Amino acid sequence: MQFKQSIATQLSTITGHPETQLIEMIERPKNKDYGQFSIAVYKLMKNGMRKKRKLDETKSVNLEENLIAGEGKERKAADELCKELAEKFQSSPTISSTTPIGPYLNFHVQRPVFIQHVLNEVFGQKNLYGTFKSHGQGRTVVIDFSSPNIAKPFHSGHLKSTILGNFVKRIHDALGYKTVAINYLGDWGKQYGLLAVGFNKYGSHDELDQDSIKHLYDVYVKISQEAKHNPVIDQEANNYIKRMEDGDESVLSLWRKFRDLSIKEYKSMYKRLNIEFTSYSGESETQPLIPQVERLLTTKNLLSTQDDGICTIDLSEYNLGTPQLKRIDETSVYLLRDIVAAIQRKQLYNFDRMFYIVGMSQQNHFQRLFKILELTQSGEGEDGGKWAEKLEHVGFGMIRGVSTRHGTAVFLKDILDTAKQRMLDIMMGNKEKYQDIINSGPSRQVQKADGSQFIDNSSFDDDQTALSDENSQIDLIGLYGKEAADRIADIVGISAIVIHDFTRDRYKDYTFDWKKTVDAHGHNGVYLQYAHARLSSIEEKAGVKLNPRADLETLQESEAFDLAYQISLYPEIVLQSYKDFQPYVIVNYLFNLSQSISHALRTLRVKGMDPEVAEPRLLLFWCARVTLGNGLNLLGLTPLEKM
Questions:
Q1: Gap between the Cα atoms of 598 and 559, Å rounded
Q2: Please, where in the chain does CATH 1.10.730.10 lie?
Q3: Which of 311, 309, 269, 282 is nearest to 186 (CA)?
Q4: Which tens digit of pLDDT belongs to each residue from 126-168?
Q5: CATH of domain 2-109
């Protein structure tokens, strides 16, 4: 941003620090009343002086000497230096004044110039505002997330993995990486053996075709209960898996049917969540390479075979125990399959980083996995062992209390349908708005969750400023009647679930609360969607066309500047959230942005105002809507124009 550059250029002249270092040190004050930018003078002191610069005619300051002066004296020196720098810093076309507060030097911008710069930037970049496409250019990341088991219900842990993994993918997309999204299905192993045995006893192909996931779950529950009292069932399951690993086509054909039907149903759910996977892989795909990896482990003297035939690997030296890799009947366990899968992915995608979006309960598993992969790569030349260091477990806490009318077995479809129905009930409570949606559909313009936009070009003042729609096939366009209401309720319900989860640190456990999640007056996803829809309504009823060349000098109100300032923070917020994949950073920002929007709307009326007043205000609110929409997109949500 030109404001940071302007500050750095002048400070470099005063202190001798390189401009590039200074730009990295410039931050936003925690208290916006202090200014719009600040720099901690003690950071300058710690980094030392490249050369002395005279701060006045009689005194020069050597920052390294001030640092050596002692802790108490250092703070005093920093405060004094801060005052001295403030006296020497000159106002400029971008910076109006400086204020020293303790060891922080704060900078106040020229407000009209700042507003102009921010709105020009947003209008120029539109749905790309807040992206950094050059950051990850030429690099590939693999994200393994969601990964349900075909024999079990889609539980809350998978829900968390699904929405967090989607966020991790989207933020890498925003930073220009090539992303590979993998849904690594639990489609092999002992649990599947139980399911297959159960289906042979209790299964129905008709019910399987009607609702595959629910029917498979019902079968799995029955056979699991029976297995508790009948050890023969357990042995039959082991025998079934052995036949699968031996390539018995008579059992593999049924497995393929279960897998294909499950994926088909999962895809319909993922579509509702705006999620697309590059690959639906699974533990089953590791089978052909298991012998090869076993030979690798043996060559590295890592694999041990016990007297009873069980294969293990000794990681006690690293406080990771002695995990098992193969059972007594020579069938594989999922740790071995994960080792194979990681090697396969490196060969297939040659990734620069790979992320596993899985709950913290599996932390020990991934510590073992990464250590084994590191050991298998030791001694392989200069780069040996290094790609194992590119693997990262992105963990998260537990969600408690997710339940639906169907009871304790929580399916993704039930969760989404429950949220949708609750929002539909709220919508129908406002008969006027509900009827408007029934009659006229969701919107005149929509931003898709992938960031692309459809804009009604008639709202622009000429053809050159009109946005082109790269993909006009937007699923909300052309919807009317109950179908439109259902779709809006679904989007708002999903937004409520996602934002409820994303309002906290991803590592923390929490209890799911339906009331807080869908409260129409709460601080939640409903609120954010309402803020976006309200701005869309302002545009639609403005009475003037959007003019990117509007005279912004009329935006003198403090609310206008505060909103422009909030908008300007978004790119930095994206980078901050990327550092530790914390979506709550984005969510908290969007709440603050929405509050600034609400405050501005109370003062900055658009409809009925003279064009010279209405046009700059409309441009400001349009940029706020685009920024809010971009943030919702980044979280995997579809911004709504009506609700």
A1: 10
A2: 418-634
A3: 282
A4: 999 999 999 999 999 999 999 988 866 676 668 899 999 999 9
A5: 3.30.1360.70
